[in-house]
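Example for tutorial group B:
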């Protein structure tokens, strides 16, 4: 079955852990770390890629070094939650680089966004001119982060 989840053994998990820490790790070093030879390690990595467990490789950027140190979480309530409205909202969100993450929620609001800007003034502009004008937005509530204790990729 193509949608079945692949079974992962201890070597697969070791590969995933090592590549999550350093996606540029040479196969020879990866093989040494997990205790297999190069050929079976390469085959396992290929299988993990082909099955979608490894979805891709990318550079991990430092938002702070890029001048994007201000983080706000925004609750969004929509005026319409029919499928067409949700799709319109989702499409518009995908086109906004300031929105780092956006999740549909099963809560007292419809979406939770992680928004990254350079400062509070820039955030205020993004909220007023961009987020509030997204399709079907009825209201928003903002929570400003003071410190990142744990973030994926950082």
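The residue assignment follows.
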């Amino acid at each position: 079955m193509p949608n079945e989840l692949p079974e992962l053994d201890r070597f697969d998990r070791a590969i995933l852990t090592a590549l999550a820490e350093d996606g540029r790790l040479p196969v020879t070093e990866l093989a040494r770390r997990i205790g297999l030879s190069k050929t079976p390690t390469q085959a396992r990595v290929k299988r993990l890629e082909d099955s979608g467990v490894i979805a891709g490789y990318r550079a991990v950027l430092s938002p702070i070094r890029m001048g994007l140190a201000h983080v706000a979480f925004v609750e969004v309530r929509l005026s319409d939650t029919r499928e067409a409205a949700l799709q319109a909202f989702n499409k518009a969100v995908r086109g906004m680089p300031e929105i780092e993450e956006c999740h549909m929620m099963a809560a007292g609001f419809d979406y939770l966004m992680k928004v990254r800007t350079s400062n509070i003034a820039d955030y205020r502009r993004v909220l007023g001119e961009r987020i509030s004008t997204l399709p079907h937005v009825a209201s928003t509530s903002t929570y400003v982060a003071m410190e990142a204790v744990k973030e994926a990729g950082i």
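Strands lie at 70-78, 99-104, 111-117, 137-144. Compare this with the pattern of hydrophobic and polar residues in the output above.
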